[in-house]
Design a protein that fits this description.
Blueprint lengths: L3 H8 L8 H8 L9 H13 L3 H10 L6 H5 L4 H9 L7 H18 L12 H11 L4 H23 L3
Helix pairs in contact: 1-2, 2-3, 3-9, 4-9
């Protein structure tokens, strides 16, 4: 059995800048070897869902803006960089970048965390449509939606790391 440190080294970055999710999942006894993406995802989501609203909000706030300042400065995590590039967010026109910046600013002001969406399989048009649609959600609806998207991103990342 590889143990706690192996698990944290392998899966600790799945929830953006929030290794505590992996730590809590492991410490709860919910991680079994061999590591498989499905059971690990379930365990990590239980840890995330069982956390306080403040802890979950911190996870949301750890995510970068889509096509935002960190992307422009080249300071995204490797996972985020690849995910955004896969959706074409690294190849926006000036007008598209301005639209993302406007929406990011409005969304952050309204909800207090960045717009989060699992971009895999989406293009910039679909992302913008979701952005425009979700901005009219209530605070509670959007918190729940963003948490669901964080869990989806974690699942996609785990599927890339571990066998099913």
């Amino acid at each position: 059995m590889a143990g706690r440190q192996h698990f944290l080294d392998t899966c600790g970055s799945v929830f953006e800048h929030s290794p505590w999710v992996a730590e809590r999942a492991y410490d709860a006894g919910d991680i079994v070897e061999p590591l498989r993406s499905g059971p690990v995802h379930e365990a990590m989501c239980r840890a995330f869902r069982g956390a306080s609203r403040e802890d979950r909000l911190a996870v949301l706030r750890a995510h970068p803006d889509l096509a935002g300042k960190l992307a422009v400065a080249g300071e995204l995590t490797e996972d985020s960089r690849q995910e955004q590039a896969g959706a074409g967010l690294d190849r926006l026109s000036t007008d598209e970048h301005a639209e993302f910046t406007r929406l990011n600013t409005h969304y952050m002001g309204q909800f207090g965390f960045p717009f989060i969406i699992a971009v895999k399989g989406l293009d910039k048009g679909a992302i913008l449509a979701a952005f425009r649609s979700r901005i009219s959600n209530s605070a509670d609806e959007e918190f729940a939606t963003a948490c669901g998207q964080v869990e989806k991103i974690a699942r996609l990342r785990l599927e890339a790391l571990l066998p099913e």
